[in-house]
Design goal:
about 140 residues; mainly alpha; 6 helices; about 0% strand
């Protein structure tokens, strides 16, 4: 994700709009990831060195999660408690991805690169959403 894209998405004087945009971007990226995991769990499992059933289940979960995040993004004023839940879920996903990498997964080189990369992206969403939520609560 480029700095230019993030700047363009955040460029607003209205913190609530910034929050909704970062929630929407999270929903789109998460849905795409989930659909890929679910639809191509076999080939992706082999590429990443991760069990295809785990990818299938994770993909289904991610699609449902993305729908919930998308619903929040569509609301004019997303409830702070629900947004906090998204932020905490994103932070937990990032942390658990890294723990899984070290503790019980045996990924291929591609998987060893992909897992921390996707964890960093999700952590980035959590950080952007946190900052945006704080700003919208002050406004």
């Amino acid at each position: 994700m480029s700095t230019y894209l993030l700047t363009a998405l955040a460029r607003t004087t209205e913190p609530r709009i910034m929050l909704r945009r970062f929630l929407a971007l999270d929903a789109v990226v998460t849905a795409a990831n989930g659909l890929a995991y679910a639809a191509a769990s076999g080939p992706l499992g082999r590429l990443l060195g991760i069990d295809s059933t785990l990818l299938l289940v994770a993909g289904a979960f991610l699609v449902l999660y993305a729908a919930g995040v998308g619903y929040l993004a569509a609301r004019t004023q997303p409830p702070a408690l629900a947004v906090r839940a998204v932020i905490e879920a994103n932070a937990a996903w990032s942390l658990l991805s890294l723990v899984a990498l070290v503790a019980w997964l045996s990924p291929t080189v591609a998987g060893a690169v992909w897992i921390p990369l996707q964890a960093a992206v999700v952590a980035g969403f959590a950080a952007l959403q946190y900052v945006s939520l704080r700003a919208s609560l002050r406004a």
